[in-house]
Amino acid sequence: MAAVTTKRSITYIRAVLTLLLFLLAAYNFPTMAEDMRFYIYIYLVVLLASNVVLIMTGDEKYEGTRLHYIIFIVDIIFLSLGTYWLADMDFNFFIIMFLTIFMCALSRSMALSIVIALVANVIYLYARYATGGGADILIQEKVLLNIPFLFVVALHSSFLAEKTADEEYQKNKLARSQKDLADRVKAIDSQMEYSAKFASDVYDAMPQGVIVLDSHGVVVAFNTAAEAVFNTKRNKVINILYREVGILGDVTGVITELIQIKSAIKGREIPAMIDNDPKKLKVSAAFVMGRERVPEGVLCTVEQQDTGKGEK
Q1: What is the Cβ-side half-sphere exposure of residue 73, based on CA atoms within 13 angstroms?
Q2: Are 132 and 213 within one domain?
Q3: Which residues pair with 280 in a beta bridge?
Q4: Which of 121, 6, 19 has its CA nearest to residue 71?
Q5: Which of 109, 258, 273, 276 is most buried per CB count within 10 Å?
Q6: pLDDT, tens digit, for every residue of 53-74?
Q7: Which domain covers residue 102, as residue numbers?
Q8: Residue 62 in contact with residue 5, Cβ under 8 Å?
Q9: How far apart are the C-alpha atoms of 54 and 15, rounded to whole Å?
């Protein structure tokens, strides 16, 4: 949408500039030298063709200010040649034109461009008068023909400056948003890391062995008591599908049964052979339910029972 608005504004500004140059050419045509007319024809055809090319240019090309800078420079060249050939472009006008560009660039506001153009025209007329233009300067045709071009220059340069300022503002706003987002992500990551560490500490504080699976059946928690029961380190179990963890033995069957019957299993006693050491385990398993009462994982606790070997 912004690109379409930019294209429309540039098209309007160039239309005014083109119309002024065509009117100026038509006004000066009767008094123009024969050899000069050919160059003016070529000049006007190129000017008109440039408008057609810009109108046919896709809207996406008007994103940003790069194309507008090119158009602005090309239009300054068109305007300088036009006023040199068709009006009375003296050194005063040339200096005032660039003074107008400078002031409009500082203002960065199209609303102020008309005021700036008026001030520039007053300065131009005074400069012409002070350099010997005479008291009748306000009725000199070639001097008056230069005045509209300062308004076009003011509009063009103010529009470019305003768009540049807006683009810079949007970039800074995006940079701030990206920084805020990065800070939020960092804070969330830190909170998630803390929560995971806290949950791990809670599991390790429990006397029973704790095995937690995610919704895909992958082991995501294996506490210190479980390490002692199965005589294995958690890093050999974490992130592995529970059915592929051979050390779990018949505990795997209890979890599979839970998944099939969809009902919690409490205090199931099963025998286990761990590192050639027979053990009796008491296993409980239940679903971890989400907010919408949908299973999001499995919680399994394992307690090692006394086998009675030490009894007399």
Answers
A1: 5
A2: no
A3: 271, 305
A4: 6
A5: 258
A6: 888 888 888 777 778 778 888 8
A7: 2-178
A8: no
A9: 11
Shared-domain flag, residues 168 and 212: no
- Same domain for 22 and 68, yes or no, is yes
Report pTM: 0.49
CATH number of the domain bearing residue 288? 3.30.450.20
Contact 72, 128 (CB under 8 A): no
Q: What is the mean pLDDT of residues 256-276?
A: 90
Instruction: Answer whether residue 193 is part of any domain.
Output: no
- pLDDT tens by residue, 152-165: 778 777 877 777 77
Classify residue 192: in a domain, yes or no.
no
Q: Residue 246 carries which DSSP code?
A: G
The answer to whether the CB of 102 falls within 8 A of the CB of 41 is no
Residue 95 resides in a domain: yes
In a shared domain, residues 165 and 215: no
Residue-wise pLDDT tens digits, 92-131: 777 777 777 777 777 777 667 778 877 887 887 777 777 7
Residue 89, domain member (yes or no): yes
User: Which residues contact residue 243 at a Cβ distance below 8 angstroms, ignoring those fewer than 6 apart?
Assistant: 217, 252, 256
User: Left if phi > 0, otherwise alpha if psi is -120 to 50, otherwise beta: which for 32?
Assistant: beta
pLDDT band for position 310 (cuts 50, 70, 90)? very low
